């Protein structure tokens, strides 16, 4: 089994910054693409950013130029640096990882961390 634990959410004023972290642990053989999704109340869960093991990144149009995804493969950790935050960025942010454990490859989710952007 693989566990994903997020941290770094909180309350921030518009224009501020936050850095989210997500650490994977457990009987991990390998981890492929890791990503961040978000879900606002009453809305579907959408991709924010993703990064492959080799470092190729993909961003939602709404966060391009403001958010940066990165990862530390040695620590099985993915980060999301969020700058110039807007009220519309308010959501629960979920970490996602494609991981192989016990010869099974599947996607795993973290428990989510709340990000609130408000004056």
Would you spell out the secondary-structure blueprint of this structure?
Elements: E1 2-7, E2 10-12, E3 18-26, E4 30-39, E5 46-51, E6 57-59, E7 67-72, E8 77-82, E9 91-101, E10 104-109, E11 113-117
Parallel strand pairs: 2-11
Antiparallel strand pairs: 1-3, 3-8, 4-5, 4-9, 5-6, 7-8, 9-10, 9-11
Q: How far apart are the first and last residues' alpha carbons, in Å?
A: 40 Å
Topology as a string of helices (H) and strands (E): EEEEEEEEEEE
| Structural class by secondary-structure content | mainly beta
Strand percentage: over 45%
Q: Please bin the fraction of helical residues.
A: under 10%
Assembly type: single chain
Query: Which consecutive residue ranges, at least 5 long each, have pLDDT under 50?
Result: none
* Main sheet record: 7 strands, mixed
Taking all Cα atoms into account, the compactness measure Rg is 14 Å
Number of E-type strands: 11
Mean pLDDT: 97
* Tally of DSSP helical segments: 0
Shape: elongated
Description:
The protein is mainly β. Helix content is 0%, strand content 60%. The protein has no helices and eleven strands. It has strands at 2-7, 10-12, 18-26, 30-39, 46-51, 57-59, 67-72, 77-82, 91-101, 104-109, 113-117. Strands 2, 4, 5, 6, 9, 10 and 11 form a seven-stranded mixed sheet that branches. It is elongated, with a radius of gyration of 14 Å. The chain starts with a strand and ends with a strand. The model has no long low-confidence stretch (mean pLDDT 97).
């Amino acid at each position: 089994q693989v566990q994903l634990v997020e941290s770094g959410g909180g309350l921030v004023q518009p224009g501020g910054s936050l850095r989210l972290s997500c650490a994977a642990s457990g009987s991990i053989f390998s981890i492929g693409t890791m990503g961040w999704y978000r879900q606002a109340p009453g809305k579907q869960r959408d991709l924010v950013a993703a990064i492959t093991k080799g470092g190729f990144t993909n961003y939602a149009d709404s966060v391009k130029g403001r958010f940066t995804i990165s990862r530390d493969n040695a620590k099985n950790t993915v980060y999301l640096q969020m700058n110039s935050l807007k009220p519309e960025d308010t959501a629960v942010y979920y970490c996602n990882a494609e991981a192989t454990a016990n010869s099974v490859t599947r996607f795993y989710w973290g428990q989510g961390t709340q990000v609130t952007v408000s004056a």
